[in-house]
Structures are given as C-alpha cells and as structure tokens.
Design a protein that fits this description.
With about 325 residues, this protein is an alpha/beta fold. It contains 12 helices and 11 strands. The structure holds iron/sulfur cluster (SF4).
Length: about 325
C-alpha cells in the first residue's frame, strides 16, 4: 500500500510519516518548494538531506506560477501576514491528489493537528480544506486521527486507526516524545518556515502587487535579498552582504541595471522597473550610503559600463522615506 504524506520539513509531518511507515505503508513524502519557503533542518541542512538522514523517500515539487495567483487573490483571505494558509493547503492537496493518481498511491495524509494553527488548523477549517481539495472523507491526519471521523483508509482497514494519535493544540511536547521514540533526527520543532507570515516580507509582497500587474518567480525570489526601496515605478534593491550581492547578480534580468562602488568596498545594487535619471541617481546615492567609504561623495559604476558617476550619500531621513 502506497501513501503520500505532505512534508514541510517540520516535526509534525515527520512524526506523521513515521506513524504510517511503522504500519508497513510505503510513504512518499511530498515537499513543495517556493521562493517563500525557508524550511531547513536543525543544523541548517536541506529538507532533502533531512529526509535522507531519516529514511524518508522524498519527492520535491515547485508550487509554480499558479501559486502566485493564489497569493495575490486568496479566496479565504490572509493570516497575520500575506499568508493565504487555507488556499495554500487546498492548492497543495490538489497537487498531492493528482500526484497520488499518477503513482497509484491510495492514501493521502498530513501532519496537521487540530487547533495548532489559528488559521488553517481549526476544526471547521480542516473540513473546508478537505472538501475544497476534493478529498472529503479521504484525508488522513494521523496526529489527530482519533479525534476525527474515520477516513476511507481507516474504514477499509488499509491502516490501523488505533495506532494513530489524539493530539490537539499548539504544544508540541507529545510530538517531541514520539519523535524521540521514533529516533527522528534533526527536525525543527515548529512547522516549515514561510516568509509570507513575516511582517517585513509581507510589506514587500504588498508593494510588489501594488506596483506590478504581472509578477514572476524572479520578482518573488528577489524579495529574499537586500534592502528594498521604492521610487514610483522603480524598485531599488541594495545588497546587505556578499550573499545578497551574489544573488542580485544571479537574479538580474536583461533590462535590470546593476551598480557598485567604483573605488571602495560596498554593495551591489539592482534597479528594476523604470530607469529615469532621478531613479539612477537615487540608486547610486543609496549604494554610496552603504559602501565602506568615509567620503561624503562616492564614485559609482554601472556593471559592465565604462565610467562612473559621483554622488553624495543618501541621508537617513530620505532612506526612511523610501524604504519598503
Ligand atoms: S504558512 Fe505559508 S506555507 Fe504554510 S500554509 Fe500558510 S501560506 Fe502555506
């Protein structure tokens, strides 16, 4: 018997997977990736490494561009940030259902726990998610199974319901005890990390939607790096460290412009959107502000172009005004 388990890389989904594996079920852990996901193991290892270390066969899938439409227009609204949790769960379960059909898996399950998350794991919300995903009566939640009506897999005897759990609420003590007994290693206690729940990141997403009718994966990936500034239809992103600088170079598209200090160490700056003379000067003054130069005026060059312009460093007051 084959089953698909949604796998965020967090403790709950790992315990759920082991509960099924312990009943002799062949489990494939389905992990969805997107530019918003920061999921990783305790020591910074990737989800794939974490799965391998714990003998969990994993299938990774991109949420793709259709997911971006859901983030922009969620039917069931947002959580505390720009996280459309209910729509997100429905979206990934629909994907899981399709994949289950492809590989002949009869059971789909999650690590959800009744009452653990304010938006997507309330009792009535679990029902809505199941219904909207086309899995009514079929979605198994092993961590809370004994408190929920029996699913198809339990009724038909594909799995033994008595071996599942009756966990509710936000505490994770019980999951931790089980994880210890199951010898699960390296999982972070919470669920998977999602940047859409973060206040600052949510502001950047709102700004992006406000100024762009169409958005790409690249636009969302860019939100993960650097300090972001807005000047009308121009977005300016200034790297904070070497990693940011490298990623700004990587994410630059054909029409973006990159700037960097000409004579001292400093950030890479990316300009996206309208390139007016004013916007270029402001981007250069921001680059100068975050450079190592002690001079008030700094030479800035555009990557690949000859020559440099000299600008004054942007003032703190101005930075505050245009920072997203
Ligand atoms: S926290 Fe993020 S990944 Fe998790 S359900 Fe909500 S939107 Fe989806």
């Amino acid at each position: 018997m084959k089953a698909i388990g949604l796998f965020s890389g967090g403790l709950d989904s790992a315990v759920a997977i082991k509960l099924l594996q312990d009943q002799g079920i062949e489990v494939i852990a389905l992990n969805y990736v997107s530019p918003f996901c920061t999921c990783q193991g305790k020591h910074g290892c990737s989800i794939a490494e974490l799965a391998k270390r714990n003998n969990i066969p994993i299938k990774m899938m991109s949420k793709g561009t259709d997911y971006m439409k859901i983030v922009r227009h969620p039917k069931f609204g947002y959580g505390s940030g720009m996280n459309p949790c209910i729509d997100c769960r429905i979206f990934i379960l629909k994907g899981a259902k399709k994949y289950a059909k492809e590989i002949g898996a009869k059971i789909i399950f999650t690590g959800e726990v009744i009452g653990q998350r304010p938006m997507s794991q309330r009792r009535n919300t679990l029902d809505i998610i199941e219904q909207e995903a086309g899995l009514k009566g079929k979605l198994l939640r092993p961590l809370s199974a004994q408190l929920l009506p029996p699913t198809e897999a339990e009724k038909k005897g594909w799995v033994d319901r008595s071996k599942f759990l009756s966990i509710t609420g936000r505490q994770r003590n019980q999951q931790m005890d089980h994880a210890k007994k199951m010898e699960l290693d390296g999982f972070l206690c919470g669920g998977g990390g999602c940047r859409l729940t973060e206040k600052e990141y949510a502001n950047k997403v709102r700004d992006l939607f406000k100024h762009s009718k169409r958005t790409s994966m690249n636009d969302f990936s860019l939100l993960n790096f650097g300090r972001h500034f807005r000047m009308g239809q121009t977005k300016i992103v200034v790297g904070r460290n070497e990693r940011d600088n490298e990623n700004l170079v990587r994410l630059k598209n054909k029409v973006d412009i990159l700037l960097e200090p000409a004579d001292c160490v400093g950030p890479t700056t990316l300009i996206r959107g309208r390139k007016t003379k004013e916007a270029l000067t402001i981007a250069a003054s921001l680059t100068a502000r975050y450079s190592d130069s002690t001079q008030e005026s700094v030479n800035i060059r555009s990557q690949g172009a000859k020559g440099a312009i000299t600008v004054h460093k942007a003032s703190e007051e101005f930075i505050h005004k245009i920072r997203i």
